[in-house]
């Protein structure tokens, strides 16, 4: 299809002039959901996408990475069930895992997503969109679209590379390479001990790479409770990952394209590898977006209110939703924000005088601050929601922390022999509700939503006492945590 040609029902009927109620810039999970919500509320919507509809998540992030990781945890857990190790004891089959990953990335084609957009009645314009003044978006510098009510910027984020001499010339892997590589590197150095670093170390080590993980802090997963990073580091080391903490990369060299890469550390020692993955965080995809035409600074995160409306832009027509607003860089939070922003856009378009922007109101993305769930799909998994103990203390809460050994729960020992794991709840003593919970151990990702409901619902501890976990499941840890809290 030609660039900036509109497809879909709105484009076909009456929007040849490029006038829509809502323009959505960026068709990742967030943009798709904003467009869907506003269209479902009776507004016309067009989505502008420069690459693939589905965004980072579908092709280079969540889906391919989890398709690489599921075989790792499935095998590892099965090997710890007596009688099963004999059946699954062999190493992973890399070509089969990579083929599974390719399928989950839809072979980097967006036909399915485009069909879905069409089915929900949203037009698609392919091309690079830029703001061209209030309510205007130009596509590839040509066609101009105009929004009656709102423009929602959902352009996501991109990897942030630190200014290390020689790094750019050495053509390092970033997350896109790590999730889409077609061969297993013999030696892989990963810089960064956050989520991408940990997940990719887990996957590529299990696929056969010799992995060195370089971390400048003293542990992994620094945004979670410290025991999460400890347990994951212990298990990565057992899997054969060389973990080096407290190190900085001073210089990177790759003498010849495709040849080995040398990573020079602050202390002067050198590590030679076949690939270097930089997993050092994300920056906003707003540098070439025409932000200057509406008084904003190119390359900055979009500072939004709780309905995701950009604070500094008058008339309230510009929204920033998903990664681009830096509230919580997760697909499920972007989709949540899309539901909130979509409802706010529709209500404002209808002229509703007063929106429900109070805490937990229909037009306030309160969960972004109070109840963000995240699962790190490492082996073991680390899953957390809400505030860690340190965050709660920093926020001034009077708290009590309760910890439990997950391995002591009957359901956990049935799940895997020698189950290692830990759980923590953080209780706000003034209201006796949970501020946060963290679980680390095999299979805990599926336990997390129970905690999310407790935190977002602000369920009193005395009522949680009546939420009976089934026996013998890992969820029985809830009973142990509450018994410990009550002093039973
Ligand atoms: C390796 C990795 C693994 C991850 N795993 C998980 C996970 O398991 N679970 C989870 O919740 N999150 C995960 N994330 C985070 C998740 O990918 C992001 O939070 C999510 O993709 C954000 O969605 P978005 O729609 O805001 O942005 P994106 O998915 O980045 O989509 C933005 C879209 O906008 C388009 N675009 C950008 N600029 C323009 C423009 N000027 N004109 C037109 N189109 C434009 C882009 O092409 C893209 O399609 C992971 C991230 C990484 C890097
Ligand atoms: N399962 C999931 O939910 C999942 C998986 C992957 C990514 N994500 C999302 O994607 C985002 C990006 O992940 P990420 O791991 O790139 O970012 P991150 O912010 O989680 O971790 C980046 C790490 O790199 C370190 N770092 C930064 N500069 C460095 C340098 N010069 N040298 C050494 N270390 C350096 C930081 O201290 C930090 O620990 C995260 O915010 C996360 O929410 C989510």
From TrEMBL:
<feature type="domain" description="FAD/NAD(P)-binding">
    <location>
        <begin position="20"/>
        <end position="332"/>
    </location>
</feature>
<dbReference type="InterPro" id="IPR016156">
    <property type="entry name" value="FAD/NAD-linked_Rdtase_dimer_sf"/>
</dbReference>
<dbReference type="InterPro" id="IPR004099">
    <property type="entry name" value="Pyr_nucl-diS_OxRdtase_dimer"/>
</dbReference>
<dbReference type="InterPro" id="IPR001100">
    <property type="entry name" value="Pyr_nuc-diS_OxRdtase"/>
</dbReference>
<keyword id="KW-0274">FAD</keyword>
<dbReference type="Pfam" id="PF07992">
    <property type="entry name" value="Pyr_redox_2"/>
</dbReference>
<comment type="similarity">
    <text>Belongs to the class-I pyridine nucleotide-disulfide oxidoreductase family.</text>
</comment>
<dbReference type="InterPro" id="IPR050151">
    <property type="entry name" value="Class-I_Pyr_Nuc-Dis_Oxidored"/>
</dbReference>
<protein>
    <submittedName>
        <fullName>Oxidoreductase</fullName>
    </submittedName>
</protein>
<dbReference type="Pfam" id="PF02852">
    <property type="entry name" value="Pyr_redox_dim"/>
</dbReference>
<keyword id="KW-0520">NAD</keyword>
<feature type="domain" description="Pyridine nucleotide-disulphide oxidoreductase dimerisation">
    <location>
        <begin position="372"/>
        <end position="478"/>
    </location>
</feature>
<dbReference type="InterPro" id="IPR023753">
    <property type="entry name" value="FAD/NAD-binding_dom"/>
</dbReference>
<keyword id="KW-0285">Flavoprotein</keyword>
<dbReference type="InterPro" id="IPR036188">
    <property type="entry name" value="FAD/NAD-bd_sf"/>
</dbReference>
């Amino acid at each position: 299809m030609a660039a900036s040609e509109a497809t879909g029902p709105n484009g076909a009927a009456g929007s040849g002039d490029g006038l829509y109620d809502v323009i959505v810039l960026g068709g990742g999970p967030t943009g798709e959901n904003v467009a869907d919500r506003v269209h479902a509320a009776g507004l016309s919507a067009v989505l502008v996408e420069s690459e693939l509809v589905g965004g980072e998540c579908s092709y280079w992030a969540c889906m391919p990475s989890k398709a690489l990781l599921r075989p790792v945890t499935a095998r590892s857990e099965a090997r710890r069930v007596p009688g099963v190790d004999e059946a699954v004891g062999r190493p992973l089959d890399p070509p089969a895992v990579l083929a599974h990953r390719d399928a989950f990335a839809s072979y980097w084609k967006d036909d399915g997503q485009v069909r879905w957009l069409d089915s929900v009645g949203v037009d698609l314009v392919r091309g690079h969109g830029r703001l061209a003044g209030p309510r205007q978006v130009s596509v590839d510098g040509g066609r101009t679209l105009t929004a009656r009510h709102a423009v929602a910027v959902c352009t996501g984020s991109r990897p942030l590379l630190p200014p290390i001499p020689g790094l750019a010339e050495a053509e390092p892997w970033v997350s896109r390479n790590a999730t889409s590589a077609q061969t297993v590197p013999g030696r892989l150095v990963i810089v960064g001990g956050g989520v991408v670093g940990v997940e990719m170390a887990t996957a590529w080590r299990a696929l056969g790479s010799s992995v060195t993980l370089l971390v400048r802090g003293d542990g992994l997963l620094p945004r979670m409770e410290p025991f999460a990073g400890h347990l994951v580091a212990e298990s990565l080391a057992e899997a054969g990952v060389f973990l080096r903490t407290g190190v900085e990369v001073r210089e990177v060299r790759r003498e010849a394209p495709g040849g080995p890469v040398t990573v020079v550390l602050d202390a002067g020692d050198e590590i030679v590898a076949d690939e270097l993955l930089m997993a050092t965080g994300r920056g906003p995809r707003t540098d070439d977006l025409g932000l200057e035409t509406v008084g904003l600074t190119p390359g900055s995160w979009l500072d939004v209110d709780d309905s995701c409306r950009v604070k500094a832009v008058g008339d309230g027509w510009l929204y920033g939703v998903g990664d681009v607003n830096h509230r919580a860089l997760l697909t499920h939070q972007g989709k949540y924000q899309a539901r909130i922003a979509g409802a706010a856009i529709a209500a404002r378009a209808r002229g509703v005088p007063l929106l429900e922007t109070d805490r937990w109101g229909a037009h306030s993305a309160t969960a972004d601050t109070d109840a963000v769930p995240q699962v790190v799909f490492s082996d073991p998994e680390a899953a957390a929601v809400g505030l860690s103990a340190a965050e709660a203390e920093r926020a001034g809460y009077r708290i009590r922390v309760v910890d439990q050994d997950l391995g002591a729960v009957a359901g956990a020992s049935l799940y895997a022999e020698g189950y290692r794991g830990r759980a923590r709840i953080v209780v706000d003593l003034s209201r006796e509700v949970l501020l946060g919970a963290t679980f680390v151990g095999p299979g805990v990702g599926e336990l997390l939503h129970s905690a999310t409901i407790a935190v977002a619902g602000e369920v009193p501890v005395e009522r949680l006492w009546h939420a009976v976990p089934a026996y013998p499941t890992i969820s029985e840890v809830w009973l142990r945590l509450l018994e410990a809290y009550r002093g039973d």
